[in-house]
Amino acid sequence: MARRSDHSRAELREIIIATGHRHMEEVGFAHFSAREVAKRIGYSIGTIYNVFGSYDSLILAINGRTLALWRDHLERRLAESADGADRLRRAIAAYFEFAAGHRHAWAAIYDFRLPEDTAPPEGYQQQVRAIFEIVIAEVRVALPEDRQGEAEALTRSLLATVHGHCVFAMNGTFAMLGEGAPVEAALQRVQDAVGSSGTC
Amino acid sequence: MARRSDHSRAELREIIIATGHRHMEEVGFAHFSAREVAKRIGYSIGTIYNVFGSYDSLILAINGRTLALWRDHLERRLAESADGADRLRRAIAAYFEFAAGHRHAWAAIYDFRLPEDTAPPEGYQQQVRAIFEIVIAEVRVALPEDRQGEAEALTRSLLATVHGHCVFAMNGTFAMLGEGAPVEAALQRVQDAVGSSGTC
DNA sequence: TATTTTATTGAACATCGTCCATTTTCTGGC
DNA sequence: GCCAGAAAATGGACGATGTTCAATAAAATA
């Protein structure tokens, strides 16, 4: 079968993650199978476990890849316009775009849960914080000087706000309740909080 | 084993749902097992499938039970104070309380997904809308007369907002980002939108 | 009581994550 | 070029899952 010299350990790891990520995008977390990933790369199931140690580690690696792609998309989208006034809108749209464009991989980030007492590995946490930092910068720009102190806490809350809208848009809750413009609704909530519409 | 005369079909259905719900609360969606439910009620696995037809229907019934309990909790909590001014705060707190008090059953509502093209049964959708209606009434009370027209759309958006905060609180995202007071954050966003803090 | 209807069973099947003894492949020293 | 030790890869075995359905048992009916 596959020869050792074909791939270094790091290369093999990368191949498994890439193939696994594709498989995740196609079938979703509920139907994801480590065996299927092994089949697709032409290795046996045992090799997957030799490289990742456990199913959970494999999923974590795949979800980490998804986070990296998400951050890329967010940055690319924000970089498009030199410095338009609608950067927060663009950030929110990018959030929804990625979720819609990678339904299954995006959902897997939240469908998968580590055992109760276990924390995600440091690298994974850093990826989440990297996205957080990107959004903080945008919130800072939108916030008046006398409110810069709120920026961190407010960004956490606004991320949760946008996430909630995105979840309801993706899982059908909004459809059930008759909501047709989730992105605009989320943007409205963000503007309420940032006060950029300037009604005071 | 169990005799037909012991339970009517409807009783058996109820027993399965109750036992299944308990099992779901204990182990969560990922480790839920229809076989285990059968074992606990002293019937064979086949009987579960005779009554519910499929695994998905069983999960749907259990999640429906969770929704009913959630609505009960919300109503009870709102009824506690005759008519305090902090009813929205109470509603939000009730949302979080239920999620925290029924971690696994609550998460199962969102962990489970029907096949892409399938819509939830009418009864299930009604349960979701029932919770929606309860919150609408509270939002109407908090909203000035000239904004009553927004009530429905705003409630959908605020539900998503609170849900997002609740998800991040329950799945560890807030912990990763250093957020320590998710309920207060959610309340702040709701007040931003409803304008009840009256800064204008 | 005899017959029909209904309820219940559990073996069989395909698949899954997990483990690990075994085999294969690679590598460095002679 | 060859051989021993290290590293990589294998795949059968295990217990568990959802799912199906012919066989069985019980109840209802005649």
Give short descriptive properties of this protein.
homodimer, 200 residues, mainly alpha, Tetracycline Repressor, domain 2, 10 helices, 72% helix, DNA-binding, transcription cis-regulatory region binding (chains A, B), AcrR family transcriptional regulator (chains A, B), HTH-type_TetR-like_transc_reg (chains A, B), transcription regulation (chains A, B), transcription (chains A, B)
Oligomeric composition of the shown chains: homodimer
Helix count, DSSP H or I runs of 4 or more residues of chain A: 10
Compute the CA-based radius of gyration of chain A.
20 Å
CATH architecture of chain A: Orthogonal Bundle
Strand content of chain A: under 5%
Assign the CATH superfamily of chain A. Tetracycline Repressor, domain 2
Tell me the span between the first and last alpha carbons of chain A.
70 Å
pLDDT average of chain A, as an integer?
93
The biggest chain-chain interface is: A-B, 43 and 43 residues
Number of domains of chain A: 1
Helix content range of chain A: over 70%
The coarse overall form of chain A would be elongated
Low-pLDDT ranges of chain A: none
Order of helices and strands of chain A: HHHHHHHHHH
If you consult CATH, what is the topology of chain A? Answer: Tetracycline Repressor, domain 2
Number of E strands of chain A: 0
Category by helix and strand content of chain A = mainly alpha
Q: What characterizes the major β-sheet of chain A?
A: none
CATH hierarchy class name of chain A: Mainly Alpha
Summarize the structure.
Two copies of one chain form a homodimer. Chain A is 72% helix and 0% strand.
